Amino acid sequence: MKYTRLKLSVLLAIMLIGILSIIGCSKTDKEQDEVTLGENVEKLLKYKDSYIGDNSAVGNISNYLLANDNLQGFELKTNEKPYEITLKYKGFEDSKTIISTNETITLPFSDVIIKNSMVLFSLIKNVDTINLEIDDGSTITYKKAELVDAYGNKYGKNLEKITGNKTSLENFLTGEV
Asked: Do residues 82 and 164 share a domain?
């Protein structure tokens, strides 16, 4: 009798701990919306010098980019050069509001996608092309060589100045391209 009562008590305690840990670890929608740009910047910088063959790194980077709530998925082309990343976006609006530690800014869609592409090129050493598939059927493509030609004087020959440190990445994401 004591043994059965003890087993029942242990089982109930384990179930209670499990339930409390699930409740305590899950975030509400409001908490998920309150992730600051600074937190995402710190997480992005952890993946500096990644390679396109690292599926996990590319996925994590994609999850911390601007407009990540519109991201449906990604694909990698790594079997031959040029190496490519395709990001698939759903229901993208004309602009995106970003809350940084100091201000709230609204970026046009065109700025968001080029910034995301440049961050990917800056963090991932061997990516050559970024394709952005929008759910309206359109695809926008950026080639690293073209962006380096256009912005290399400002951001370095591999766009490395964008992710030089937390401040440079935050300024890039909230400033003009």
From this structure: yes
- Structural domain containing residue 28: 1-34
For the whole model, what pTM was predicted? 0.78
Instruction: Give the dihedral sign, CA 36/170/141/60.
Output: negative
Q: What is the DSSP string of 27-85?
A: PPHHHHHT--HHHHHHHHHTTTTB-TT-HHHHHHHHHHSTTGGGEEEEEEE-SSSSPEE
Residue 27 shares a structural domain with residue 104: no
pLDDT band at 27 (very low <50, low <70, confident <90, very high): very low
How far apart CA 167 and CA 100 sit, in angstroms, is 12
